[in-house]
């Protein structure tokens, strides 16, 4: 297996709750090496580049959100607030809310390294919705939010940490190397 790099962003909600040390310790215990670490404010331009999505990705994001809100019994309320259950339109709103949230306060960006870094980091972080994330994951242990609550409040879910996916790890790592570190 080859060594991989992955980008981890500790979001404003985790910083506000003073969870930085605990979050970093999850990765260190899992054998990650921290290659770079910096605290700072993400520019709007960087947020637009970081949180980009194709039409199909926006639709998929909206579908996952609608499935989660349906499962938790809040679909009718979400529909009432947004006037639509169109997954694409909801995906667009989520991306915009995320950009606004990520530029609202400081974040911590880390580039981590280890074998199988991308998959292991996502496993450590846990499911997107902290209300259903497994205990032992960052979101499962520290999460206090849910997709339903976030949608009803018209904001992104406060889920503490962002981790690159397989497709985005090299792109995101390179982007932050150039524009944040």
Could you list some keywords that capture this structure?
10 helices, 4 strands, Alpha-Beta Plaits, globular, 4-stranded antiparallel β-sheet, about 180 residues, about 15% strand, alpha+beta, single chain
Distance between the termini: 28 Å
Task: Work out the helix count.
Answer: 10
**What does the largest sheet look like?**
4 strands, antiparallel
CATH class: Alpha Beta
| Rg over C-alpha atoms, rounded to the nearest angstrom | 16 Å
Q: How many strands in all?
A: 4
Could you report the average pLDDT, rounded to the nearest whole number? 93
Query: Strand pairing plus helix content: what structural class?
Result: alpha+beta
What does this protein structure show overall?
- The chain is an alpha+beta fold.
- It is built from ten helices and four strands, in the order E-H-H-E-H-H-H-H-E-H-H-H-E-H.
- The chain has one domain: Nucleoside diphosphate kinase-like domain (Alpha-Beta Plaits, 2-Layer Sandwich), CATH 3.30.70.
- It has a four-stranded antiparallel β-sheet, sandwiched between helices.
- The two termini are 28 Å apart.
Write the layout of secondary structure elements.
Blueprint: E1 3-10, H1 12-16, H2 20-29, E2 33-41, H3 44-50, H4 55-71, H5 75-82, H6 87-102, E3 106-115, H7 117-125, H8 138-142, H9 147-152, E4 161-163, H10 169-179
Antiparallel strand pairs: 1-3, 1-4, 2-3
Helix pairs in contact: 4-6
């Amino acid at each position: 297996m080859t060594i991989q790099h992955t980008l981890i962003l500790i979001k404003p909600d985790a910083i506000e709750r003073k969870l930085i040390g605990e979050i970093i310790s999850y990765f260190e215990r899992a054998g990650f090496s921290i290659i770079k670490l910096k605290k700072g404010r993400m520019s709007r331009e960087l947020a637009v580049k970081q949180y980009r999505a194709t039409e199909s990705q926006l639709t998929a994001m909206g579908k996952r959100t609608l499935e989660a809100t349906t499962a938790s019994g809040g679909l009718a309320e979400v529909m009432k607030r947004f006037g639509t259950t169109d997954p694409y339109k909801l995906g667009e709103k989520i991306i915009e809310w995320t950009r606004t949230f990520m530029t609202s306060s400081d974040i911590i960006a880390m580039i981590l390294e280890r074998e199988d870094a991308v998959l292991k980091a996502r496993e450590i972080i846990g499911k997107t919705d902290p209300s259903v994330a497994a205990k032992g994951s960052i979101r499962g242990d520290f999460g206090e939010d849910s997709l339903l609550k976030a949608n009803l409040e018209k904001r992104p879910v406060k889920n503490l940490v962002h981790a690159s996916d397989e497709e985005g790890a090299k792109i995101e790592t390179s982007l932050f190397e150039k524009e944040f570190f």
